[in-house]
Automatic annotation (TrEMBL):
This is FLZ-type domain-containing protein. Residues 83-112 are annotated as: Disordered. PROSITE patterns: ZF_FLZ. It comes from Carya illinoinensis (Pecan). Pfam families: zf-FLZ. PANTHER family: FCS-LIKE ZINC FINGER 1 (PTHR46057:SF9), FCS-LIKE ZINC FINGER 1-RELATED (PTHR46057). Keywords: Metal-binding, Zinc, Zinc-finger. Residues 91-112 have a biased composition (Polar residues). The lineage of its organism: Eukaryota, Viridiplantae, Streptophyta, Embryophyta, Tracheophyta. InterPro entries: FLZ1/2/3 (IPR044533), Zf-FLZ_dom (IPR007650). GO terms for molecular function: zinc ion binding. A zinc finger (FLZ-type) spans 28-72. Residues 28-72 form the FLZ-type domain.
Length: 112
């Protein structure tokens, strides 16, 4: 390989390795606020969320937390509705004892 230095890098966001020579250079993840994209640094506080997501202020971080919680609540509600529908479907398609064994009210005579 002429002119290329080949190395693999662990991406901090995806936790996967990728070949650096095939990727465009990515800015360091602490260079700008995840939400508003304001530059970070210059001896200012950086507010982190979920390990590797930087924010310029508590307000930006809280907005992302609220957004994530709303998505999670919606996902959990959707999952709950799906589980309830599956349960109802199983109950409606599973045989019920009164449906499988109808009662007959007649007299049977046996002769020997």
């Amino acid at each position: 390989m002429s002119g290329f230095t080949r190395f693999s890098v662990l991406s901090p966001r995806s936790r996967r390795f990728y070949e650096a020579r095939f990727e465009e250079p990515q800015p360091h993840f602490l260079e700008s606020c995840f939400l508003c994209k304001k530059p970070l640094g210059c001896n200012k506080d950086i507010f982190m969320y979920r390990g590797d997501t930087p924010f310029c202020s508590e307000e930006c971080r809280q907005e992302q937390i609220d957004t994530d919680e709303a998505k999670e609540k919606k996902w959990n509600l959707t999952s709950s509705v799906k589980a309830l529908r599956k349960k109802q479907q199983r109950e409606s398609t599973s045989p019920n004892k009164t449906q499988d064994y109808p009662f007959r009210t007649s007299t049977i005579a046996a002769a020997s």
